[in-house]
Specification:
567 residues; 7 helices; 12-stranded antiparallel β-sheet; mainly beta; 9% helix
């Protein structure tokens, strides 16, 4: 039987514009005509006129002595101000030689400098160390914590790597106010915790601007996770009705290359498993049920006592299927550094997660790589390229977990979980054999391969003539290839009669069938943005104009065959 399904979903001509104008920028220059000014000398011998006192100078970085363009210079107590040019030079007209100038620049300590009758100043600004807790990532940008007005919570990288997990969503429980999490399965390669912001449905998740789940991202690659609630998420429109989770991965930094290697081995253990009754307890409860139903008991007290004393053996089917813990291995390595013009972050990682099945036939492995590169072409033009790729493999038995647990719950403790010849052992009910069902050699193997490539490429340009105005063009993209091979096998169940040394056939289970399915997804998201951000003394103004377009193409195919010629 072959089913061929192909669907194409193309959101074309939907290029919707998200325009958030946080401020209206009006730059007005007023030219005032005046009579020729008369000049005079102050007590220091410097010349000034009745229009004011002209001060010029240069602003530099106190650490490396490099000039700083775009520094805001304001005459204290007034709205009179200017900014340093591309070479760090400035010129401003003060009211008198005793006024004070305020110098402010993003990432530097604000400095107040009295003029003190000087007509030329050489200013050195000290850089301010900005930690991850000082900058909060918000929609299409970031702000300092003191300027944040919306409801946003953020988790930094140092909090994300304290524990070893296979799924990044498991890092968030208890760390973000208003975020509800629920984990319904601990199977290797599972989807991780379900996230709900203030109880609503699934939120929009963006990783470096790309719409995608972040459960499979290597936690060592994450710089911060921001959770946008209520109006803070409104800039994303209808997609953000349930809130937004923004994941920012690490980027390069100026400095010598730094290599970081982390390896850990951990074990996972179920928080709780059913404790089954032994054979004596089972028969005792069975006898009690018959009596309560008004029936003559078919189980004698002598038989119960023989199991209780150990004369007859009792078996634990749960112990035969599960081991008490499951190992997990994780290795990651990264290289981070850069110069004045180019910065880079490169990483690679591997994860192997096993299940608690004693058969060892449910395993998950992940291989991931990442490359984040930023480069400054000149003082105004910059480019960036972010690429990440993952290959995920899940190998498991073809029997569903629900069927295995159902067989376990019906298994009777006076039947041996294993037969001497290794054939599937009868569990005492129907054709159930939970040990055999958990083995891929008996029930069949299902292999899932998931390949993903995500990234973004773009450029930024600081527009000349308007300090703080920047344009950005970027292309986000995502490619997903998913394949599933399922080989379902039938098997026969036998009960071993030790007294007569013979095997009693108890029925067959499953069908012979081979299934293959494929899924392809292509997603692109081009966008252009215009940003304005400038500080005027103790005040700041910011604005954003953005247009983006989303196009998505999906295709699926599946086929199956009953009773194949070869397994």
């Amino acid at each position: 039987m072959v089913n061929n399904m192909e669907s194409q979903k193309s959101i074309k001509n939907v290029g919707y514009i998200l325009v958030s104008m946080l401020a209206l920028i009006l730059l007005t220059q007023i030219n005032v005509q005046a009579q020729p000014a008369s000049s005079s000398l102050n007590e220091t011998g410097l010349e000034y006129n009745n229009e004011g006192f002209r001060v010029t100078g240069t602003v530099r970085d106190a650490t490396d002595n490099e000039t700083l363009p775009g520094v805001n210079i304001v005459l204290k107590g007034t709205t009179t101000g200017t900014a340093s040019d591309i070479n760090g030079n400035f010129s401003i007209l003060a009211n008198s030689p005793t006024d004070t100038l305020i110098f402010s620049y993003l990432g530097y300590v604000t400095l107040e400098v009295p003029i003190e009758n000087r007509d030329n100043l050489d200013i050195a600004l000290q850089s301010r160390v900005i930690t991850g807790d000082d900058i909060i990532v918000i929609g299409y940008g970031s702000v300092s914590r003191e300027d944040l007005t919306g409801s946003v919570s953020q988790v930094s990288s140092r909090d994300l790597t304290r524990i070893s997990v296979a799924n990044a969503t498991e890092l968030l429980p208890g760390r973000v106010p208003g975020l509800m999490t629920k984990t319904t399965t601990g199977l290797p390669g599972s989807g991780g915790a379900t996230l709900r912001i203030r109880g609503y449905d699934n939120p929009l998740v963006l990783v470096d601007g790309v719409e995608m789940p972040f459960n499979r991202i290597d936690p060592d690659d994450i710089e911060s996770i921001s959770v946008l609630k209520d109006a803070s998420a409104a800039i994303y429109g209808a997609r953000a009705g349930n809130g937004v989770i923004l994941v920012t991965t690490k980027s390069g930094t100026k400095g010598a290359p730094r290599i970081n290697i982390r390896s850990n081995f951990s074990v996972e253990q179920p928080t709780q498993l059913v404790t089954p009754v032994n054979a004596a307890q089972y028969l005792e409860l069975f006898r009690e049920g018959e009596i309560n139903s008004g029936l003559n008991p078919t189980v004698s007290l002598d038989e119960i006592e023989r199991y209780r004393s150990g004369e007859l053996e009792s078996y634990d089917w749960y112990d035969a299927v599960f081991r008490p813990w499951a190992p997990q291995r994780q290795v990651s390595a990264s290289l981070r550094g850069g110069s004045e013009d180019i910065r880079y972050f490169l990483s690679a990682g591997f994860l192997n997660q096993e299940s608690a099945f004693r058969s060892g036939d449910y395993n998950f492995s992940r291989y991931n790589v990442r490359s984040n590169i930023d480069a400054d072409i000149n003082e105004r033009l910059g480019v960036f390229l972010n690429l990440s790729g993952r290959i995920e493999n899940v190998d498991r038995t073809s029997e569903s977990m629900g069927e295995i647990f159902g067989s376990l719950m019906r298994a009777q403790p006076f039947f041996n979980p294993s037969n001497p010849d290794g054939s599937p052992a009868y569990a005492g009910f129907g054709n159930n054999s939970p040990v055999a069902e958990s083995m891929s050699d008996v029930r069949g193997l299902t292999e899932t391969v998931n390949e993903r490539v995500e990234g973004a490429i773009g450029t930024t340009y600081q527009i000349p003539g308007v300090i703080g105005l920047e344009a950005e063009a970027r292309m986000n993209f995502r490619i997903i290839n998913n394949e599933v091979w399922a080989n379902n096998k039938s098997f026969e169940v036998f009960e071993y009669d030790a007294d007569n040394d013979e095997y009693i056939f108890r029925g067959g289970r499953g069908i012979n069938r081979v299934t293959r399915s494929e899924f392809r997804d292509r997603w692109i998201n081009p966008s252009i943005a215009l940003r304005y951000d400038r500080i005027f003394g103790d005040h700041s103004i910011a604005g954003l104009a953005l247009a983006e377009y989303i196009d998505q193409y999906r295709r699926g195919f599946d086929a199956s065959r009953l009773d194949p010629l070869s397994p």
